[in-house]
Amino acid sequence: MNNEEALNAIEIILIYELSQLRENKRTWAEKDGDLEYPNLNILLATYNFLNQSSKDSIIANFESRIKNSTEGIFNNHGIETTDKEHSYEPNRYYASEIPLLFQFLCFVKSNEFAINSISNIHPFTTTFLLTQYLIYLIDNNLFKFNIIETNKLLKTLDKDFTLTSKEWCNIFKQKATNLMTKQITSIVGKYNIEINQDKLLLLDIVQKNNFDRTLSEFISQLNENSIFESSYTLSGLISNFRNFWETFIIAVAEKISDKTLIPIDTSEKTKIANSRLYIKRELKLSDNDHALISRFVDILHSEGGHAFTSTKEYFRLTKNIGIEILLLIISKFDAKINGV
């Protein structure tokens, strides 16, 4: 198929899509957990025959068609009606290019690009079929939009204030928010709430005392780092946490020295060892506190520095223990320096 044939074939596919919908034949389905959309598949395959210039033109053309598209509303006798206020009734069906063009742009460009395209629809009374399509995706576990994209879809589809579109939008809103809340619960459930609160307290004290910004940025991202699944990545994260730990301890010792004008010990071979001894003395850490910190350092070195891989659970535990120890140190630091 040459370029000209492909361009003409795309027009034929879009005409065929509309003709099927006008006959009340749904053009998409769920099959074995995947979206079955024959017209979309042939459209994507035909698009691949185009040269780059024609591909760019098709994308621009599809954006324009979405923005200016019309939507036919038919009764159960196949007669088109202009009565949009009662088009929510079950004996009405819709015909529009928008679902096909929207899903095409999701695949070829991105979800965000496709959502931006439908946000430009005017007048915004041609989204009944698109809303039904999105509801179908949710009902059949085919909805592939993340939290941010879903929220943008909700805001986009809530633009039209006709009675009918509001009812369809409310159905989509209920189903989409229910699905996203389950995902949010799953994500949040990965983190221990108490640990997360302690992390925020740690971050607050670090920022209040004007520690280097890189330290607060690392602390802020600790929960985000927890989502990595690769054992190789997790091993690297533990190694990064060890480097952060050493930087943090040295920074605390230097802050104390700056405030008290008491010099840091130099009896040990390394800067981190001298900083730890200095902190133990100046913050009056108990022998048990010091022993706990030493054991934690051993864990950081054995699992992060020498082990080739590390499990997700091990990183989570290492991170959580590290947060609690750092909070203990920074709280004692805050009490000494600021009298709190």
Automatic annotation (TrEMBL):
Superkingdom assignment: Bacteria
Protein name (Swiss-Prot/TrEMBL): DUF262 domain-containing protein
